[in-house]
Amino acid sequence: MIVVVIAITISSQQAMAQLSGMQTMYYQNQYMANPAMAGIEQGLNLNLGYQQQWTTVPGGPKLQNFTADYNSGNRVGLGLSVNGDNAGLINRTRVMGTYAYHLPLNANDDKLSFGISFGINNTYIDYTKVNGDQGDGSVQNFNQRNIYVDGDFGVAYTSQKWNLQAALPNLKSMFFTNDANNNLEVDRSTFFSAVSYKAHIDNGISNFTIEPKVVFRGVKGFDNIVDAGAQMTMNDYHINFGGMYHTNKSFTLAFGLNLTNMDILAAYTNNTGPLSVYANNTFEFGVKLKLFDK
């Protein structure tokens, strides 16, 4: 019986973790979604993010993320990404190292970037949260799965105005389709693509930037998701705000501060579909430190 409860918990709470995702990946920390964006900016970028989903439900998903990416001023970017995903009984940890190459296309700073990540993925059940027979063989069998090697691949075209991206996460599930672990992770990401256009406006009174963005992404076992929205940055006041609608029936509002060497983001997501009856409110906080930039 306990294995049935575990399966329901995994499929519902872990799925919401991927369906919502971290909001910082859209603008503040694009390396999260695409390894080609590692080191796209000169210097060292440190990002720390935390998201709490389903605040009214005990054991609701929690996402934690740390990334570091570096570019000394040449064409090579290096990155490190550490992700923690806690939902109910399930803990998932993913650690990836990234190599990216940024090919200049002209003197206007247009780039064609390629990135690949390799690392390890570990998913296990927390025995201390099992409400039942902790010696159940099903729990032990789940935790006996080996830590496995995984990877991501991405490409990107960036200019002063355009940003086009495509990424294939979880490469192991693509090349080893018969692996038993793949069937246990119904919520894993299958692809990511995005396009945005940045418009700078200076009317002599105010100076601001508007960047509309459309994202198309896949999650195994669910309908493909379209995220559409925009961010406005008021350069004179060092603030930004924006909104994003997700076709999984949720809407996100975000507000940020752009300081000299630090960006701070706070986001709130509201579910508008049937899920909002018993599980609503997702909060996220992200901090970015910019060091050694030119």
Any overview of this molecule?
The chain has 294 residues and is mostly beta strands. It has 4 helices and 15 strands. The chain has helices at residues 2-20, 137-143, 171-175, 180-184, and strands at residues 43-52, 62-71, 76-87, 90-104, 111-125, 148-158, 162-168, 189-197, 199-202, 207-219, 225-234, 239-246, 250-258, 262-271, 282-291. The chain starts with a helix and ends with a strand. Strands 1-2-3-4-5-6-7-8-10-11-12-13-14-15 form a 14-stranded antiparallel beta barrel. Mean pLDDT is 85; it is low at 1-16. Helices cover 12% and strands 52% of the residues. It has a single domain, classed as Porin, CATH 2.40.160. Strand 9 and strand 10 (207-219) form a beta hairpin. The radius of gyration is 20 Å and the shape is globular.
Helix/strand structural class: mainly beta
What is the radius of gyration?
Answer: 20 Å
* CATH class categorisation: Mainly Beta
The largest β sheet comes out as:
14 strands, antiparallel, barrel
Here the CATH topology equals Porin
Counting structural domains, the number is 1
What is the residue-averaged pLDDT? 85
Name the overall outline.
globular
The portion of residues assigned to helices is: 10-25%
